[in-house]
Design goal:
By secondary structure, the protein is mainly α. It has a domain of 94 residues: Cytochrome c-like domain (Cytochrome Bc1 Complex, Chain D, domain 2), CATH 1.10.760. It is 33% helix and 0% strand. Helix 4 packs across helix 8 and helix 7 crosses helix 8. The relative contact order is 0.11.
Amino acid sequence: MRSTKIVTLGLVTVVLAAAACNNGPRREPGKIYMPDMAYSRAVETYADHSNLTEAGIYYDATPVAGTVKRGGVASFPLAKDAAGDTANYVASKQVVNPLPALNEKDMAEAKRLYNVNCGICHGEKLDGNGPIYKGGDGPYPAKPATLVGDAKYENMPAGQMMYSVTYGKNLMGSYASQLSTKQRWMVIHYVKSMQPGGVKPVAAADTTAKPAADTTVKATK
């Protein structure tokens, strides 16, 4: 009798150990409250999204059409022209920069954004002589556009500049992934401010709280 109990206990121990070591897939997950929270469908920015549609997840990594993030500005209203067409590029001349004149702080940030993203080609002086060209000694053989000093670009409307920065033009690629819509308009404000007749930054409003005037009645002697 004692040996039978020992054998039975041994078999139970083996079965439990085998069950504990079973790492195979669970065919029946059981009942879960809010499964979307239990099993996250979070998507990493640079992850492979090719299998999402098969899983019933429709994600194209772009904002919902017509939406604007908090603190942002509306997307550029014109779509990119089809190959061989220039209708929207021409129409972009009528698009007005939606940002008001920049104050000194915002203009400094716009200048920084220009130097980081545009200066390598167009130069810090906006003369088309950035490090990539370097007076003809750089790695790029063709001189980039001269934003200050060339009437073509000095007379180019802000909307048409925005079209080019958003979608790319000729040998310049799109900067829509590097700069938000608001940042692109800020950079264009900076470029226009550097051109002849450009609007210089406005003084920042003084938000310092001032003491209230003393309205108490003073005793007279």
